[in-house]
Write a structure and sequence with these properties.
heterotrimer, A mainly alpha (about 260), B mainly alpha (about 425), C alpha+beta (about 170), B: about 425 residues, mainly alpha, Cytochrome Bc1 Complex, Chain C, Helix Hairpins, 2 domains, two-stranded antiparallel sheet, 16 helices, about 65% helix, about 0% strand, globular, C: about 170 residues, alpha+beta, 4-stranded antiparallel beta sheet, 3-stranded antiparallel beta sheet, about 25% strand, elongated, disordered N terminus
Chain lengths: ~260, ~425, ~170
């Protein structure tokens, strides 16, 4: 028994050691949410993903790009579950610079499902110039690029306060946010109640908008999350069975000599 | 045969034996091949009939587990290499393409990433086992030394591999680690520029790191072969540290050791799958999902977890050159252990004093790992210094001193006697040990 | 050798438990190998580009354009009356790969072909060869004005890709 005890202490210490270094800075505790994609059987809520996409296009997309995503991703397995026709309709609304054509000129055409998400700015410099020097980060892998992941993004969206605590001076174009490191953020409060009107009748409270868009961003960072968990679960079951079988075989083999000791 | 002498004496006529066909224990086609290319008999002698001490614990399964890790890493690396583009403008995007578009690309990449971590988990347990049971002592010194070389190569390969996704941690990790060479007096900066092929870490650096990552990976495989050849000459050590004398002390490799190792491998694989499939980024750093930016350094640079103890040693010393020397020496002293620990008794089971110091060393390793991940300020600096001092004290002072003064416990004469003592409770060990 | 009870154990070793374990293990190895193989198939970004639209309005009678589709050249030819007539009157018995012209076109003036010789993958040259169609310079295969193999080593006619008219003067490939 003491072996088990010592080993688990050992392991506990090991995990503590590893998990600690990423959360070095002392910060406000994040608003922890229970996400549908958490846990061993986590799956995305399709309706929430679709609403989240709406929030992204109507709010975030005016500043934040998502360069790694294509419109076709919206209809792929494990995603928001738009139909291919819906995706065609979505993508045909954008204009894409293509070419050169036979006469060597670039031309504009309407978007296709295989096109990347349209960017709000042509390049990073233009983005900085339009946002007071701050670069609105690309949101394709944003959730994976922040310690705290989905909870962190949610907390930022919910963490704005109109009046900063006493003693904190905010320059022009800087806002107070409880969860941002240093508490100063150059993005104005993006989500308010009814910033977006949902067509499926869901109440568009700030919490709901934030939840939906974070769900969408999580999917964008990890589009194969559902497949990963599904395959992972099957693999674990399989390995448990095989391990048990191998253990029995091993035991049987060692019985040949064990009595002789 | 004394080849040199007989070459001098040209008049002597001797039979030569260049043709050694025959002697295969196999018949038929296998025998025919084996007589001309003895792969089957080598396999039979070295892997089926090979005699292994019967009292090996599961700690001895780590060797096989490491081999599996290495093979899986090479295989997944091979397929990732089919999609990855080693250029500063394409690397990040190509990795994301693997994660999004390539069939099962996410699985292959997460597996490669986490196998690297599990490779280090296994190698640290493997080294601990060697340390605890004196596997570095006569006649296994060279095997131990080859092991240390493999460990160095592993660290280099892991570091090179970590730069490839070209995220912020990749970029700044590469910058910090290559800058270690600038500590070399006089030619330091020249060396660093040469390593980079540029005036900062850049496109050329990434391209050569990619090639070297491949090269070293196969290099490890090559050196591992020497490690294994040496093992098959000197034989496995065992928990008692007593050499097996006859077949009462041993079992044949197959099916006894193989079935046991297979079980251990599956347990290991289970842990790997749980991490890879349910928390694939747990052992990594979120900043590496931000594309490399030469203008902004992340607020808190940390290497991968497996480098943290060494990183702590580096930072614990306030001088640049000495810090680098300390970090490199911390692994080199490990290689010198066979000549620092002079005790004739191998196993710590019979060395009550040394055993305590070994456990303290393990604790020190974890403490250094912890402070290596913390900012280099305040109490952490002090802890890191104490940890560093103990690290070197352990090898350079404690090992020789204890080995010369310690009174070891009475030892059985053979492995089967050791097993009987264990059953009678005369020797107390943890079950896994 | 220590374990010389091997012979008596031989039957034992192949017992039910071992067989089951081996079988289960083999299934796992197979499943693990599949991702390693499948990763070499076209990825989803490549598959997404698998259809393109081509505007035919600028191709005059007798002219031919070549467009790139799935990394291969596709010939789109606006055939003359003469060429259509030649293609239609051929006796199917003469052909190595018998197929009537009307099975190879959707509108008889528009011939759409994958421009890859069915022999070993070279690109045939338009307007050359003995049958008024295409000629492959690599190994001398002759194709007629319907893209059918007439002479030379190629085994089958030039492939007609899947396409559809999405307007009077527009086709969608794939």
């Amino acid at each position: 028994m003491s072996f088990v005890l010592k080993f688990s202490l050992f392991f506990l210490f090991f995990t503590l050691t590893i998990s600690n270094f990423s959360s070095a800075e002392k910060q406000e505790k994040l608003l922890r949410q229970s996400w549908s994609f958490d846990g061993f059987f986590g799956k995305f809520d399709r309706a929430s993903l679709q609403r989240g996409y709406q929030v992204y296009t109507e709010v975030c997309a005016s500043c934040h790009s998502m360069n790694l995503l294509s419109y076709r991703n919206l209809s792929e397995v494990g995603g928001p579950g738009f139909s291919e026709d819906e995706v065609k309709a979505i993508s045909s609304k954008i204009e894409v610079l293509d070419g050169p054509n036979e006469s060597g000129e670039m031309f504009k055409r309407s978007g296709k499902a295989s096109d990347k998400f349209a960017s709000p700015f042509p390049n990073e410099k233009a983005a900085r110039a339009a946002n007071g020097g701050a670069y609105p980060p690309d949101m394709s892998v944003l959730v994976k690029a922040r310690a705290g992941g989905a909870d962190y993004i949610y907390s930022i969206l919910m963490g704005y306060e109109d009046k900063p605590p006493k003693g904190i001076k905010l320059e022009d174009g800087v806002y107070y946010n409880k969860y941002m490191s240093g508490n100063k953020i150059k993005m104005s409060k993006p989500l308010n109640n009814d910033s977006v009107t949902y067509s499926d009748g869901t109440a568009s409270t700030q919490e709901q908008l934030a939840k939906d868009v974070v769900t969408f961003l999580t999917w964008a960072s990890e589009p194969h999350l559902e497949a990963r968990k599904r395959i992972g679960f099957k693999t674990v079951i399989y390995l448990l069975i095989l391990t048990a079988l191998v253990y029995l075989v091993k035991k049987k083999i060692w019985l040949r000599i064990e009595p002789k000791v | 045969m004394s080849g040199q002498d007989s070459n001098l004496n040209n008049n002597e006529i001797r039979p030569v034996h260049t043709n050694k066909v025959g002697g295969s224990p196999f018949k038929g086609v296998v025998g025919w091949i084996d007589n001309r290319l003895p792969i089957f008999r080598i396999f039979k002698y070295e892997y089926l009939d090979f005699q292994v001490p019967k009292n090996l614990s599961y700690l001895w399964s780590l060797g096989g587990i490491l081999m599996i890790c290495l093979i899986f890493l090479i295989v997944t690396g091979l397929v990732l290499g089919m999609h990855y583009k080693p250029s500063s403008s394409e690397a990040f995007v190509s990795v994301e393409k693997i994660m999004r578009d390539v069939n099962y690309g996410w699985l292959l990449r997460y597996a490669h990433m986490n196998f690297a971590s599990f490779f280090f988990i296994a190698v640290y347990i493997h080294i601990f086992r060697g340390l605890y049971y004196g596997s570095y002592k006569e006649p296994r010194q060279l095997m131990w030394l080859i092991g240390i070389i493999i460990f160095f190569m592993m660290m280099a390969t892991a570091f090179l591999g970590y730069t490839l996704p070209w995220g912020q941690m990749s970029y700044w990790g590469a910058t910090v680690i290559t800058n270690l060479f600038s500590a070399v007096p006089l030619v330091g900066n020249t060396i660093v520029t040469w390593l980079w092929g540029d005036y900062a870490v850049g496109d050329s650096t990434l391209n050569r790191f990619y090639v070297l990552h491949w090269f070293l990976a196969f290099g490890i495989l090559g050196i591992v072969i020497f490690h294994v050849i040496a093992l098959h000459i000197v034989g496995s050590n065992n928990p008692s540290g007593i050499e097996p004398a006859d077949t009462r002390d041993t079992v044949s490799f197959a099916p006894f050791t193989t079935s046991k190792d297979l079980f251990a491998m599956l347990i290991f694989l289970l842990a790997f799958v749980l991490i890879t499939m349910f928390a694939p980024n747990y052992l990594g750093h979120p900043d590496n999902y931000i594309p490399a930016d030469p203008l902004i350094t992340p607020a808190h640079i940390v290497p991968e977890w497996y480098f943290l103890p060494f990183y702590a040693i580096l930072r614990s010393i306030p001088d640049k050159l000495l810090g680098v020397i300390a970090m490199v020496s911390s692994t080199v002293v490990l290689g010198l252990l066979p000549w620092l620990d002079l005790s004739k008794v191998r196993s710590s089971v019979f060395r009550p004093i040394w055993k305590q110091f070994v456990f303290l060393f393990v604790l020190d390793f974890f403490i250094l790992m912890y402070v290596g991940g913390m900012p280099a300020e305040g109490i952490y600096v002090l802890i890191a210094r104490v940890g560093t001092v103990y690290w070197f004290l352990f090898f350079l002072i404690i090992a020789p001193l204890v080995s010369l003064t310690e009174k070891t416990l009475p030892m059985p004469n053979s492995i089967h006697e050791y097993e009987n003592w264990k059953k009678q409770g005369r020797i107390k060990t943890l079950k896994i040990f | 050798m220590s374990e010389n009870n091997n012979n008596s154990d031989k039957k034992n070793r192949r017992d039910f438990l071992t067989v089951v374990t081996t079988a289960v293990g083999a299934v796992g190895v197979g499943a693990a190998v599949w991702p390693l193989i499948n990763q070499m198939n076209p990825d989803s970004s490549v598959k997404a580009l698998a259809s393109i639209e081509v505007d035919l309005s600028k191709i005059k009678e007798g002219q031919e354009i070549t467009v790139l589709w799935r990394g291969k050249p596709v010939f789109i030819k606006n055939r003359t009356k003469q060429e259509i007539a030649n293609a239609e009157k051929v006796d199917l018995k003469e052909l190595k790969d018998p197929q009537h012209d009307n099975k190879r076109v959707k509108k008889s003036e528009w011939l759409v072909l994958v421009g890859v010789c069915t022999h070993l993958g070279c690109v045939p040259i338009s307007g050359k060869g003995d049958y008024g169609g295409w000629f492959c310079p690599c190994h001398g295969s002759h194709y007629d004005s319907s893209g059918r193999i007439r002479k030379g080593p190629a085994p089958t006619n030039l492939e007609v890709p899947t396409y559809e008219f999405v307007g009077d003067n527009k086709i969608k490939l794939g």
